[in-house]
Amino acid sequence: MTSDPLAPLDLAFWNMESDRHPMHLGALGVFATHSPTAGAHAADLLAARAAAVPGLRMRIRDVWQPLSFGGATREADPDFDPLNHVRLHAPTADFHAAAGRLMERPLERGRPPWEAHVLPGEDGVSFAVLFKFHHALADGLRALKLAAGVLDPVDLPERGPRPVEPPRTLLSDVRRLPALLPGLVRGALSDAGRALDIGASLARSTFGMRPSSALTSAPSGTRRTAGVVLDIDDVHRVRKSVGGTVNDVLIAVVAGALRRWLDERGDGSEGVAPRALIPVSRRRPRTAQPQGNRLSGYLIRLPVDDPDPLRRLDTVRTAMVRNKDAGPDRGAGAVALLADHVPALGHRLGGPLVGQAARLWFDILVTSVPLPGLGLRLGGHDLTEVYPLAPLAPGQSLAVAISTYRGHVHYGLVADAQAVPDLDVFARAVSEEVQSLLTACDA
């Protein structure tokens, strides 16, 4: 397999990592079983199948050649051994407690940056698998594809072939240059204007209402995870009652849960309106784009200080409509797009500084990870719950990832364990907020 240069945003993720802030994302899947040996069998299956998934063999290697000085590539690891990546653990009574400890540990950078941890349940009727993928290896969509490669096969609808581009040569590029030049100039001017818009929006976003100190902290390097399961029918009831989208409701639930959590822990929600980054995928899977993260984002103020749940939802809906009207290429949430205009060496030298600056950009990450509607299995055992887990930015205490799977919404929560020892309180507040919205809609 040939080497594949890291896209600029992947290179940024690779270089902003530190021991206390690993840049891997995760997913905790819970499987139902009736066999106490199912976890061990699942670990054997994962190791055997991983060898046949080309993407799982890819390591990231730094490049110091003149034309790509400071860059990095994905390339096949000649010493790849699945047993270095798949680990079977002792039985546990708390999958999330175990996942939190495992999410603390950075992935080994000299090997393909992924791991699968199998956690047998003490109850004997379930086991869990924690997948970890470095953000430079895969975004949420690609991580899902890689994980699906080691689960039981499913019948997916066939897609049409990708368009094939004719081979390009230096002579053909020179001949096309006069026709391309006006477009290149317009593109450069458009990029400059977009960069100015993003910078101005980012500056404006730093003013106004304050975030809570509970959402920012000195990094401890510790992690805690929790999960919440909601009935998708409840979310649709709210959406149909007041309008907007399912995503609007799910984001508004986060705002209401933050209010409940802050008030209960004594920090108070008055005057609190944290900036939430809502990632937006710009990947176009049917084109011949290179692999890599293609992300932008929307930035909105969460109306945590508003006591009315329906007004909170209306504020979120209005902010999301405004972001969508502007598009994902402009606004403060689109800062990730600027990575394309930074040379490789700039990412290498400035990565740690960019990571530290995340707290100036947003206060909390709220991301949605799509999952297939089909039921997934491992070794014949049904996947019953799946919690996406997002990386925690330096200086931030809490990240929220959301997936919908087979009639249920799963919130995956990741927090700095020292800054947020009461993550279970926030998880409970998520469930309570949905009930509050339902009650308000029925009133």
Q: Brief description of this entry?
A:
By secondary structure, the protein is an alpha+beta fold.
Please tell me about this protein's structure:
It is a single chain. With 443 residues, this protein is an alpha+beta fold. It has 2 domains: 4-149, 2-Layer Sandwich (Chloramphenicol Acetyltransferase); 192-284 and 292-370 and 391-442, Chloramphenicol Acetyltransferase (2-Layer Sandwich), CATH 3.30.559. It has helices at 8-16, 38-50, 95-104, 140-148, 170-205, 232-242, 246-265, 309-326, 344-356, 358-361, 423-442, and strands spanning 4-5, 24-32, 58-63, 71-76, 86-88, 114-120, 126-134, 224-231, 275-281, 295-301, 364-368, 377-378, 381-389, 398-405, 408-415. It is globular.
How many distinct beta strands? 15
What is the CATH homology-level superfamily of the largest domain? Answer: Nonribosomal peptide synthetase, condensation domain
Count of discrete alpha- or pi-helical segments spanning 4 or more residues: 11
The largest sheet has its strands arranged as 5-6-7-2-13-12
Provide the CATH top-level class of the largest domain.
Answer: Alpha Beta
| CATH third-tier fold name of the largest domain | Chloramphenicol Acetyltransferase
Strand content: 15-25%
Summarize the main sheet. 6 strands, mixed
Q: On the 0-100 scale, what is the average pLDDT? A: 82
Percentage of residues assigned to helices: 25-40%
User: What is the end-to-end distance?
Assistant: 61 Å
Shape: globular
- Structural class, from helix and strand content? alpha+beta
Number of domains: 2
Q: What sequence of helices (H) and strands (E) makes up the elements?
A: EHEHEEEHEEHHEHHEEHHHEEEEEH
CATH architecture of the largest domain, by name, is: 2-Layer Sandwich
> Can you tell me the residue ranges where pLDDT is under 50 for at least 5 consecutive residues?
156-160, 184-200, 285-290, 334-351
